[in-house]
Every structure is written in structure tokens, then in C-alpha cells.
Design goal:
4 strands; ABC transporter C family member 10; 5 helices; alpha+beta; two-stranded antiparallel ribbon; single chain; nucleotide-binding
């Protein structure tokens, strides 16, 4: 699982693409590999436009802009930290849910 995504990302690295579109590129990869891959994307594509479709919150936390969609509708579009500060923000709810689940997983070990 995940080999196809890694292969395509490697091809984009070799081509030195200026625009990179990732659609759940790390969905089939474990969390540690995802962290390594995200660091690689941030460093190797720092001067590129990167558009990422993601469900993992850490994947988008340091993005320039986040677009939140619910039931096929655009709900919000702003910088991640602005959305985190906005009461009632869908993105804020998702982040809080992710980290509370993450915390409870650690505590149950």
C-alpha cells in the first residue's frame, strides 16, 4: 500500500515540478512515513505551488491556506491559525477532534 503514491511523488521530484497536486498522497502510508514524506514535500517543493487534498490534520497544519468542505460545500477558506482562532470553525472542530482522539489513544497505552 502506498507504493504508487511514493512512485508518483518521486517522479515529481525528478521533474522539478512547479505545481504539485496531491490527492490523499499519504492515505495508505503509516504515520511515521507520512511525517517523513510531509517534511520532504515541504523542503523539496518549498518554491512550488502545492495543492493537497488531505484528511490527516497534521498534513495541513502548516499550509498557507486551508479550504474546508462539508457535504460538498465550501465552508471556510483561510489561514490555518485564523481558522483555529474562529469560534465555530469546522477546521477548528476537526483539529480539536483529531488531537483529543490522538491524546486518548496515547493515554490508553
Amino acid at each position: 500500500m502506498g507504493q504508487r503514491q511514493l512512485f508518483c511523488l518521486g517522479r515529481a521530484l525528478l521533474r522539478r515540478s512547479k505545481i504539485l497536486v496531491l490527492d490523499e498522497a499519504t492515505a495508505s502510508i503509516d504515520n511515521i512515513t507520512d511525517m517523513i514524506l510531509q517534511k520532504t514535500i515541504r523542503t523539496e517543493f518549498a518554491d512550488c505551488t502545492v495543492i493537497t487534498v488531505a484528511h490527516r490534520i497534521p498534513t495541513v497544519m502548516d499550509c498557507t491556506m486551508v479550504l474546508s468542505i462539508s457535504e460538498g460545500n465550501l465552508v471556510e477558506y483561510d489561514e490555518p491559525m485564523s481558522l483555529m482562532k474562529t469560534e465555530g470553525s469546522l477546521f477548528r472542530q476537526l483539529v480539536n477532534e483529531y488531537y483529543s482522539h490522538f491524546q486518548s489513544t496515547i493515554e490508553s497505552r
